[in-house]
Design a protein that fits this description.
It is built from ten helices and twelve strands. By secondary structure, it is α/β, with parallel strands linked by helices. The chain has one domain (about 5-210, about 275-335): Glycoside hydrolase/deacetylase (TIM Barrel), CATH 3.20.20. The strands form two sheets. Strands 1, 2, 3, 4, 5, 6, 7, 8, 11 and 12 form a ten-stranded mixed sheet that branches. It has a two-stranded antiparallel ribbon with strand order 9-10. β4 (about 95-100), α4 and β5 (about 150) form a beta-alpha-beta unit.
Length: about 350
């Protein structure tokens, strides 16, 4: 089971000047299709949904967004997965990073189970070798090794950051603020915010968390209130939903998967007022085709999903005066005002 040693989570928060326009990163978990409610299996490697990725990319192009597709092994080992991205990448319209799903990424030396689905729970040598294989395969397909990493299931472990440093990564996007997966053997990010930070032994890695937080009139105490509402006996009374409907505490992530445009706007406005200037919008690539994720089951769901992307980007760029950016650009800007140790 993952050791949530506090040393793993030591970080230096980055300075974000108050006069900065809000910056928007887009990170897509680019992966195979599988039943999220079923047990993990090495046999689930279909990447048919990638045939629809250009439809999504056209929305990014419209708003001059250069997304980062963090790709896993089924994507880069099958032509149906990587070929659609090769054209987009060759034209400079995206960046390619690494996304480790250990159960479908060789070498296959571990048991397939829920605990081992978090990459950071693997023995150090095995986690490193899986990531090395993934990085080399990405290099073969796209011409250079990745420098952006996002652990599958947000599964950082006590050895992960050191492995990333050794393998030349410069960015990690694995942290999901306010998420506690410790009941499954995963990491606990309850004390993390969405603020970028310098992490790793030498503070050379830039952590760019998934943007998440609380909105509502009691948001200042959001974590404690939400945690209490999520546990018995209040959980049986659907207290989390009641709190959100009453606009007291609403836990929201910056994603069109499960969150409305209005909720995402509410989150961004709340976090911007707190001083956050770098926002990460994220979702899973199989959502671009109906039937692969809980969020997009039908064609109607797909239209809603794509509409949320458009509506949020329009709000962020027009009403918020925001700008699209990339991890590379964010790092360059942050180094000018928030150097690591």
């Amino acid at each position: 089971m993952m050791n949530n040693d506090p040393v793993l989570f030591q970080r230096d928060l980055c300075t974000q000047p108050s006069d900065w326009a809000p910056r928007l990163l887009v990170v897509i978990d680019t992966e195979e299709e599988f039943d999220w409610s079923a047990e993990f299996s090495r046999d689930n490697t279909s990447v048919r949904s990638m045939r629809e990725i250009e439809r999504l990319q056209r929305i990014f192009d419209e708003y001059r967004i250069t997304p980062t597709y963090v790709v896993d092994y089924p994507i880069v080992s099958q032509a149906d997965g990587y070929r659609p991205l090769q054209d987009i990448h060759a034209s400079g319209r995206c960046l390619i990073g690494a996304h480790l799903h250990p159960w479908v990424n060789p070498p296959f030396d571990e048991l397939v189970n829920r605990v081992n689905s978090f990459p950071g729970n693997l023995p150090r040598a095995l986690e490193a070798e899986k990531l090395q294989v993934l990085g080399e395969t990405i290099s073969d397909r796209f011409g250079s090794k990745p420098i952006v990493y996002k652990a599958g299931r947000y599964g950082l472990g006590t050895e992960t950051l050191g492995i990333l440093e050794e393998q030349g990564f410069e960015f990690d996007c694995s942290v999901c603020p306010h998420l506690d997966s410790s009941h499954e053997g995963g990491p606990n990010y309850l004390d993390w915010s969405s603020c970028p930070s310098w992490v790793g032994k030498d503070r050379t890695l830039l952590e760019l968390p998934f943007t998440g937080g609380y909105a509502g009139v009691a948001r200042r105490w959001g974590s404690a209130i939400h945690d209490r509402a999520s546990r018995p006996p209040l959980s049986s009374m659907r207290a989390v939903g009641v709190l959100a409907r009453l606009d007291l505490v609403d836990k929201i992530y910056l994603s069109p998967e499960g969150f409305t445009t209005e909720e995402m706007i509410k989150l961004v406005q709340a976090l911007y007022s707190d001083g956050l200037r770098v926002f990460t919008f994220a979702f899973h690539s199989p959502s671009v085709e109906p039937g692969h994720t809980p969020y997009v089951r039908t064609q109607e769901d797909l239209e809603v999903f794509l509409g949320r992307c458009r509506e949020f980007f329009e709000f962020f760029m027009s009403r918020m005066g925001g700008v699209a950016t990339t991890p590379l650009e964010v790092r360059e800007e942050l180094l000018k005002v928030s150097s690591p140790l």
